[in-house]
# Entry
Amino acid sequence: MQIVTVKSYSELSTLAAKLIAQQIKSKPNSVIGLATGSSPVGTYEKLIEIHKKDGLDFSQVTTFNLDEYCDLDRKHPQSYYTFMKEKLFSHINIASKNINFPDEDFDKYEDEIKNCGGIDLQLLGVGNNGHIGFNEPADVFQNKTHRVHLAESTIQANARFFNSADEVPKTAITMGIGTIMAAKKIILVAGAEKAEVINKLKKETVSPQFPVSILHYHPDCTIIYSSSS
Ligand code: F6R
# Structure
């Protein structure tokens, strides 16, 4: 695991998008794992720019999103499906049949990833409590895609996207830690507001109470951290 510290969120986004574009150029039918939340928004903006200016071709790319809320219609403005459509998919030439989100059929999601040859590159953000995907701090690492009860701190953090914390779904489906770790390459983007998490990650030994720490064991993981906003 290497931590690359850059000076600004814009630099972080440019670098993450460049690495994803390199992956797609070297393998046009790449399988890319995607994250939602604020952290990757700039990366998606830069990818759209590369698509529009340099013709980066997504026509053969397949995507698997990390997570999705339960009990929220796909068309809900705060569903992760809507988020991805607005922030990336509707601006690039990805085929809608190649876009995947987890649902209650956990085994099917795992099989679909395997049938595509596995994830070539997984993009991640990190929660203030160290969660990746929605793998919250716990006594054990959950390996596969599963349903999770969101931590109170995650509900509070995500309330900014809803009218109130009460509206934030309490459960979600997330790829498991094993699903994420099986990706051939991982890029995690963390802005300046994640300074504490990144410092803890540098020091902390691997523990399911701090899920992001598992990335110490990944053979090809780059954390892009911006020291200011
Ligand atoms: C979302 C996801 C989450 C977020 C994390 C950080 O798909 O997987 O782990 O990456 O909650 O969210 P932001 O970027 O909004 O701080």
Summary: Helices lie at 9-26, 41-54, 80-87, 106-115, 152-158, 177-181, 195-203.
